[in-house]
Task: structure prediction
Amino acid sequence: MTTPPSHAGLPAPARVRDRATWLLSRAYLRSTGLLSEGFEAAGGDLRGYHYRLLAALEESGPVSQASLGRSTSIDRSDVTAVLAELEDRRLVERTVDPDDRRRNLVSMTRAGMGELTRLDRVISGIQDRLLAPLSAAEQRRFLELLRRVADGVTPPP
Amino acid sequence: MTTPPSHAGLPAPARVRDRATWLLSRAYLRSTGLLSEGFEAAGGDLRGYHYRLLAALEESGPVSQASLGRSTSIDRSDVTAVLAELEDRRLVERTVDPDDRRRNLVSMTRAGMGELTRLDRVISGIQDRLLAPLSAAEQRRFLELLRRVADGVTPPP
DNA sequence: GGCCAACGTTGGTTCAACCAACGTAACAGA
DNA sequence: TCTGTTACGTTGGTTGAACCAACGTTGGCC
Result:
Protein backbone atom coordinates (compact mmCIF):
# COMPACT_ATOMS: atom_id res chain seq x y z
CA MET A 1 0.00 0.00 0.00
CA THR A 2 1.14 3.53 -0.63
CA THR A 3 -1.04 5.28 1.87
CA PRO A 4 0.67 8.58 2.50
CA PRO A 5 2.43 8.88 5.86
CA SER A 6 -0.23 11.39 6.87
CA HIS A 7 2.23 12.88 9.35
CA ALA A 8 -0.69 14.87 10.64
CA GLY A 9 0.41 14.44 14.20
CA LEU A 10 2.35 17.29 15.66
CA PRO A 11 1.62 20.97 15.23
CA ALA A 12 3.54 23.05 12.72
CA PRO A 13 5.42 26.15 13.90
CA ALA A 14 3.13 29.00 14.88
CA ARG A 15 4.54 31.20 12.14
CA VAL A 16 3.33 28.66 9.61
CA ARG A 17 0.35 26.92 11.15
CA ASP A 18 -2.45 29.29 10.22
CA ARG A 19 -1.28 30.63 6.90
CA ALA A 20 -3.41 30.05 3.86
CA THR A 21 -0.39 28.91 1.85
CA TRP A 22 0.38 26.28 4.47
CA LEU A 23 -3.16 24.97 4.81
CA LEU A 24 -3.40 24.87 1.06
CA SER A 25 -0.24 22.84 0.73
CA ARG A 26 -1.46 20.39 3.34
CA ALA A 27 -4.85 20.06 1.74
CA TYR A 28 -3.17 19.57 -1.61
CA LEU A 29 -0.89 16.95 -0.13
CA ARG A 30 -3.89 15.09 1.21
CA SER A 31 -5.60 15.41 -2.14
CA THR A 32 -2.67 14.05 -4.13
CA GLY A 33 -2.24 11.31 -1.57
CA LEU A 34 -5.83 10.17 -2.04
CA LEU A 35 -5.50 10.46 -5.79
CA SER A 36 -2.37 8.37 -6.08
CA GLU A 37 -3.95 5.85 -3.76
CA GLY A 38 -6.93 5.75 -6.08
CA PHE A 39 -4.89 5.53 -9.26
CA GLU A 40 -2.85 2.75 -7.77
CA ALA A 41 -5.91 0.81 -6.66
CA ALA A 42 -7.36 1.27 -10.14
CA GLY A 43 -4.28 -0.39 -11.62
CA GLY A 44 -3.07 0.41 -15.11
CA ASP A 45 -0.23 2.60 -13.88
CA LEU A 46 -1.96 5.83 -14.84
CA ARG A 47 -1.72 9.18 -13.09
CA GLY A 48 -3.25 12.60 -13.16
CA TYR A 49 -1.86 13.60 -16.54
CA HIS A 50 -3.29 10.49 -18.17
CA TYR A 51 -6.73 11.16 -16.77
CA ARG A 52 -6.70 14.80 -17.80
CA LEU A 53 -5.72 13.92 -21.32
CA LEU A 54 -8.32 11.18 -21.64
CA ALA A 55 -10.98 13.52 -20.26
CA ALA A 56 -10.08 16.28 -22.70
CA LEU A 57 -9.97 13.85 -25.58
CA GLU A 58 -13.37 12.41 -24.83
CA GLU A 59 -14.80 15.88 -24.72
CA SER A 60 -13.25 17.19 -27.91
CA GLY A 61 -13.11 14.16 -30.11
CA PRO A 62 -9.97 13.61 -32.21
CA VAL A 63 -7.62 16.60 -31.97
CA SER A 64 -4.00 17.50 -32.31
CA GLN A 65 -1.57 17.12 -29.43
CA ALA A 66 -0.99 20.84 -29.28
CA SER A 67 -4.68 21.47 -28.88
CA LEU A 68 -4.86 18.81 -26.21
CA GLY A 69 -2.02 20.51 -24.41
CA ARG A 70 -3.81 23.82 -24.47
CA SER A 71 -7.09 22.50 -23.16
CA THR A 72 -5.42 20.66 -20.31
CA SER A 73 -2.68 23.19 -19.52
CA ILE A 74 -0.13 20.45 -19.91
CA ASP A 75 3.13 21.34 -21.60
CA ARG A 76 3.39 19.91 -25.08
CA SER A 77 6.52 17.96 -24.23
CA ASP A 78 4.66 16.26 -21.39
CA VAL A 79 1.70 15.64 -23.67
CA THR A 80 4.02 13.81 -26.04
CA ALA A 81 5.37 11.56 -23.31
CA VAL A 82 2.05 10.77 -21.68
CA LEU A 83 0.28 10.10 -24.97
CA ALA A 84 3.04 7.66 -25.85
CA GLU A 85 2.25 5.78 -22.68
CA LEU A 86 -1.46 5.85 -23.41
CA GLU A 87 -0.78 4.57 -26.90
CA ASP A 88 1.35 1.74 -25.54
CA ARG A 89 -1.66 0.67 -23.52
CA ARG A 90 -3.93 0.98 -26.58
CA LEU A 91 -6.04 3.65 -24.89
CA VAL A 92 -5.47 6.21 -27.64
CA GLU A 93 -4.34 6.18 -31.24
CA ARG A 94 -2.23 8.71 -33.07
CA THR A 95 -2.17 9.30 -36.78
CA VAL A 96 -0.68 12.06 -38.82
CA ASP A 97 -3.39 14.55 -39.82
CA PRO A 98 -3.62 14.28 -43.63
CA ASP A 99 -4.79 17.90 -43.82
CA ASP A 100 -1.78 19.16 -41.87
CA ARG A 101 1.10 16.80 -41.64
CA ARG A 102 2.63 18.68 -38.75
CA ARG A 103 -0.22 17.52 -36.55
CA ASN A 104 -0.77 14.23 -34.80
CA LEU A 105 -4.46 13.48 -34.66
CA VAL A 106 -5.17 11.78 -31.37
CA SER A 107 -8.29 9.72 -30.86
CA MET A 108 -9.56 7.54 -28.09
CA THR A 109 -9.99 3.81 -28.45
CA ARG A 110 -12.85 1.80 -27.04
CA ALA A 111 -10.52 0.61 -24.32
CA GLY A 112 -9.60 4.22 -23.62
CA MET A 113 -13.23 5.13 -23.13
CA GLY A 114 -13.63 2.20 -20.77
CA GLU A 115 -10.61 3.25 -18.78
CA LEU A 116 -11.87 6.81 -18.57
CA THR A 117 -15.21 5.64 -17.23
CA ARG A 118 -13.51 3.48 -14.68
CA LEU A 119 -11.23 6.28 -13.53
CA ASP A 120 -14.19 8.62 -13.38
CA ARG A 121 -15.78 6.53 -10.71
CA VAL A 122 -12.58 6.23 -8.74
CA ILE A 123 -12.00 9.95 -8.84
CA SER A 124 -15.54 10.79 -7.87
CA GLY A 125 -15.12 8.62 -4.83
CA ILE A 126 -12.00 10.53 -3.94
CA GLN A 127 -13.81 13.85 -4.02
CA ASP A 128 -16.18 12.46 -1.45
CA ARG A 129 -13.38 11.28 0.76
CA LEU A 130 -11.49 14.54 0.44
CA LEU A 131 -14.50 16.63 1.38
CA ALA A 132 -15.84 14.23 3.97
CA PRO A 133 -14.93 16.57 6.85
CA LEU A 134 -17.51 19.05 5.54
CA SER A 135 -21.28 18.89 5.42
CA ALA A 136 -22.94 19.06 2.02
CA ALA A 137 -23.66 22.76 2.41
CA GLU A 138 -20.14 23.45 3.58
CA GLN A 139 -18.77 21.56 0.62
CA ARG A 140 -20.63 23.79 -1.78
CA ARG A 141 -19.46 26.88 0.02
CA PHE A 142 -15.90 25.63 0.15
CA LEU A 143 -15.81 24.85 -3.55
CA GLU A 144 -17.12 28.25 -4.42
CA LEU A 145 -14.53 30.03 -2.32
CA LEU A 146 -11.77 27.71 -3.48
CA ARG A 147 -12.64 28.37 -7.08
CA ARG A 148 -12.26 32.09 -6.59
CA VAL A 149 -8.93 31.66 -4.84
CA ALA A 150 -7.75 29.35 -7.61
CA ASP A 151 -8.86 31.79 -10.29
CA GLY A 152 -7.20 34.64 -8.48
CA VAL A 153 -9.35 37.29 -10.06
CA THR A 154 -9.46 40.22 -7.74
CA PRO A 155 -12.63 42.16 -8.32
CA PRO A 156 -12.36 45.94 -8.38
CA PRO A 157 -13.42 47.48 -5.06
CA MET B 1 11.21 37.51 -13.43
CA THR B 2 9.70 34.13 -12.71
CA THR B 3 6.08 35.11 -12.67
CA PRO B 4 4.19 31.89 -13.29
CA PRO B 5 2.64 31.56 -16.73
CA SER B 6 -0.77 31.75 -15.09
CA HIS B 7 -2.25 29.80 -17.98
CA ALA B 8 -5.60 30.63 -16.51
CA GLY B 9 -7.13 31.20 -19.91
CA LEU B 10 -9.05 28.32 -21.36
CA PRO B 11 -11.46 26.05 -19.53
CA ALA B 12 -10.38 22.63 -18.36
CA PRO B 13 -12.31 19.56 -19.50
CA ALA B 14 -15.76 19.28 -17.95
CA ARG B 15 -14.83 16.05 -16.20
CA VAL B 16 -12.12 17.91 -14.37
CA ARG B 17 -13.26 21.49 -14.09
CA ASP B 18 -15.39 21.35 -10.96
CA ARG B 19 -13.65 18.70 -8.94
CA ALA B 20 -12.27 19.63 -5.57
CA THR B 21 -8.98 17.92 -6.36
CA TRP B 22 -8.59 20.03 -9.48
CA LEU B 23 -9.48 23.33 -7.85
CA LEU B 24 -7.16 22.50 -5.02
CA SER B 25 -4.28 21.82 -7.36
CA ARG B 26 -4.88 25.09 -9.18
CA ALA B 27 -5.12 27.05 -5.97
CA TYR B 28 -1.97 25.36 -4.76
CA LEU B 29 -0.24 26.19 -8.02
CA ARG B 30 -1.17 29.80 -7.60
CA SER B 31 0.00 29.73 -4.01
CA THR B 32 3.39 28.24 -4.82
CA GLY B 33 3.74 30.65 -7.71
CA LEU B 34 3.22 33.62 -5.44
CA LEU B 35 5.54 32.13 -2.86
CA SER B 36 8.41 31.52 -5.22
CA GLU B 37 7.90 34.99 -6.61
CA GLY B 38 8.14 36.33 -3.08
CA PHE B 39 11.18 34.28 -2.13
CA GLU B 40 12.91 35.35 -5.28
CA ALA B 41 12.13 39.01 -4.71
CA ALA B 42 13.40 38.63 -1.15
CA GLY B 43 16.73 37.41 -2.50
CA GLY B 44 18.96 35.10 -0.49
CA ASP B 45 18.02 32.05 -2.55
CA LEU B 46 15.80 30.60 0.12
CA ARG B 47 12.65 28.56 -0.36
CA GLY B 48 9.81 27.08 1.62
CA TYR B 49 11.91 24.53 3.48
CA HIS B 50 14.31 27.19 4.67
CA TYR B 51 11.51 29.31 6.03
CA ARG B 52 9.83 26.41 7.77
CA LEU B 53 13.04 25.40 9.46
CA LEU B 54 13.87 28.93 10.56
CA ALA B 55 10.35 29.36 11.90
CA ALA B 56 10.49 26.13 13.86
CA LEU B 57 13.92 26.96 15.19
CA GLU B 58 12.89 30.37 16.40
CA GLU B 59 9.96 28.86 18.20
CA SER B 60 11.80 26.02 19.88
CA GLY B 61 15.21 27.45 20.55
CA PRO B 62 18.22 25.21 19.95
CA VAL B 63 17.18 21.66 19.13
CA SER B 64 18.38 18.61 17.32
CA GLN B 65 17.88 18.14 13.60
CA ALA B 66 15.62 15.16 14.16
CA SER B 67 13.36 17.20 16.38
CA LEU B 68 13.33 19.97 13.82
CA GLY B 69 12.34 17.47 11.19
CA ARG B 70 9.46 16.24 13.28
CA SER B 71 8.07 19.66 14.05
CA THR B 72 8.19 20.72 10.41
CA SER B 73 7.26 17.39 8.82
CA ILE B 74 10.39 17.60 6.73
CA ASP B 75 12.28 14.39 6.12
CA ARG B 76 15.51 14.24 8.07
CA SER B 77 17.59 13.88 4.95
CA ASP B 78 16.10 17.09 3.60
CA VAL B 79 16.63 18.76 6.96
CA THR B 80 20.31 17.90 6.70
CA ALA B 81 20.65 19.42 3.26
CA VAL B 82 18.67 22.57 3.95
CA LEU B 83 20.41 23.22 7.26
CA ALA B 84 23.73 22.94 5.48
CA GLU B 85 22.60 25.71 3.14
CA LEU B 86 21.40 27.82 6.04
CA GLU B 87 24.70 27.28 7.77
CA ASP B 88 26.61 28.32 4.66
CA ARG B 89 24.72 31.58 4.79
CA ARG B 90 25.46 31.91 8.52
CA LEU B 91 21.77 31.87 9.38
CA VAL B 92 22.08 28.90 11.72
CA GLU B 93 24.86 27.13 13.63
CA ARG B 94 25.30 23.46 14.33
CA THR B 95 27.26 21.94 17.18
CA VAL B 96 27.37 18.41 18.50
CA ASP B 97 25.19 18.10 21.60
CA PRO B 98 27.59 17.32 24.45
CA ASP B 99 24.84 15.46 26.32
CA ASP B 100 24.11 13.19 23.37
CA ARG B 101 26.79 13.07 20.76
CA ARG B 102 24.45 11.61 18.18
CA ARG B 103 22.63 14.92 18.04
CA ASN B 104 23.45 18.11 16.21
CA LEU B 105 22.23 21.05 18.23
CA VAL B 106 20.97 23.67 15.80
CA SER B 107 20.62 27.28 16.83
CA MET B 108 19.74 30.44 15.00
CA THR B 109 22.18 33.27 14.50
CA ARG B 110 21.34 36.93 14.73
CA ALA B 111 21.42 37.06 10.95
CA GLY B 112 19.04 34.13 10.86
CA MET B 113 16.58 35.94 13.06
CA GLY B 114 16.80 38.95 10.79
CA GLU B 115 16.19 36.86 7.72
CA LEU B 116 13.22 35.17 9.36
CA THR B 117 11.68 38.53 10.19
CA ARG B 118 12.20 39.72 6.66
CA LEU B 119 10.66 36.60 5.16
CA ASP B 120 7.78 36.87 7.59
CA ARG B 121 6.75 40.14 6.10
CA VAL B 122 7.08 38.86 2.56
CA ILE B 123 5.00 35.81 3.31
CA SER B 124 2.31 37.76 5.09
CA GLY B 125 1.98 39.91 2.02
CA ILE B 126 1.53 36.81 -0.05
CA GLN B 127 -1.34 35.58 2.09
CA ASP B 128 -3.09 38.82 1.35
CA ARG B 129 -2.53 38.51 -2.36
CA LEU B 130 -3.59 34.89 -2.40
CA LEU B 131 -6.84 35.59 -0.57
CA ALA B 132 -7.52 38.90 -2.27
CA PRO B 133 -10.45 37.46 -4.26
CA LEU B 134 -12.34 37.00 -0.99
CA SER B 135 -13.77 39.49 1.45
CA ALA B 136 -12.45 39.47 5.00
CA ALA B 137 -15.39 37.41 6.22
CA GLU B 138 -15.05 35.00 3.34
CA GLN B 139 -11.36 34.62 4.05
CA ARG B 140 -12.08 33.54 7.61
CA ARG B 141 -14.72 31.10 6.46
CA PHE B 142 -12.45 29.74 3.75
CA LEU B 143 -9.56 29.19 6.13
CA GLU B 144 -11.77 27.37 8.57
CA LEU B 145 -13.14 25.02 5.92
CA LEU B 146 -9.73 24.58 4.35
CA ARG B 147 -8.25 23.63 7.69
CA ARG B 148 -10.80 20.90 8.15
CA VAL B 149 -10.17 19.56 4.66
CA ALA B 150 -6.42 19.66 5.25
CA ASP B 151 -6.78 17.86 8.58
CA GLY B 152 -9.02 15.29 7.03
CA VAL B 153 -10.66 14.35 10.28
CA THR B 154 -14.05 12.96 9.51
CA PRO B 155 -16.30 13.46 12.50
CA PRO B 156 -18.64 10.62 13.42
CA PRO B 157 -22.17 11.13 12.02
C1' DG C 1 10.51 31.75 -53.08
C1' DG C 2 11.45 33.21 -48.44
C1' DC C 3 10.25 33.93 -43.91
C1' DC C 4 7.96 33.00 -39.92
C1' DA C 5 4.84 30.33 -37.01
C1' DA C 6 3.06 26.02 -35.44
C1' DC C 7 3.87 21.23 -34.35
C1' DG C 8 5.93 17.20 -32.19
C1' DT C 9 9.99 15.55 -30.07
C1' DT C 10 14.22 15.16 -27.19
C1' DG C 11 16.45 16.23 -23.31
C1' DG C 12 17.01 18.75 -19.89
C1' DT C 13 15.62 21.53 -14.79
C1' DT C 14 13.16 22.62 -10.39
C1' DC C 15 10.76 21.88 -5.97
C1' DA C 16 8.55 19.26 -2.51
C1' DA C 17 8.19 14.90 -0.78
C1' DC C 18 9.70 10.64 -0.24
C1' DC C 19 12.76 5.98 0.81
C1' DA C 20 16.87 2.93 1.74
C1' DA C 21 21.15 2.12 3.70
C1' DC C 22 25.06 3.22 6.47
C1' DG C 23 28.12 4.37 10.57
C1' DT C 24 28.07 6.23 15.07
C1' DA C 25 26.14 6.71 19.53
C1' DA C 26 23.01 5.77 23.34
C1' DC C 27 20.20 2.75 25.82
C1' DA C 28 17.65 -1.25 27.92
C1' DG C 29 17.48 -6.01 29.26
C1' DA C 30 19.59 -10.28 30.31
C1' DT D 1 28.99 -6.38 31.09
C1' DC D 2 27.80 -7.74 26.84
C1' DT D 3 24.13 -7.61 23.36
C1' DG D 4 20.54 -6.25 20.67
C1' DT D 5 17.75 -2.39 19.50
C1' DT D 6 16.72 2.17 18.70
C1' DA D 7 17.91 7.12 17.50
C1' DC D 8 20.60 10.25 14.78
C1' DG D 9 22.79 12.42 10.85
C1' DT D 10 24.32 11.69 6.29
C1' DT D 11 24.59 10.12 1.43
C1' DG D 12 22.44 9.06 -2.52
C1' DG D 13 18.92 7.93 -4.70
C1' DT D 14 13.29 8.30 -6.82
C1' DT D 15 8.84 10.30 -7.90
C1' DG D 16 5.14 13.59 -9.91
C1' DA D 17 3.93 17.86 -11.64
C1' DA D 18 5.35 21.77 -13.86
C1' DC D 19 8.43 23.93 -16.48
C1' DC D 20 12.09 25.57 -20.55
C1' DA D 21 15.20 25.40 -24.71
C1' DA D 22 16.36 23.74 -29.02
C1' DC D 23 15.64 21.19 -33.20
C1' DG D 24 13.69 19.42 -37.66
C1' DT D 25 9.50 19.28 -40.23
C1' DT D 26 5.57 21.39 -42.21
C1' DG D 27 2.29 24.99 -43.49
C1' DG D 28 0.69 29.62 -44.45
C1' DC D 29 1.55 34.28 -46.05
C1' DC D 30 3.40 37.99 -48.50
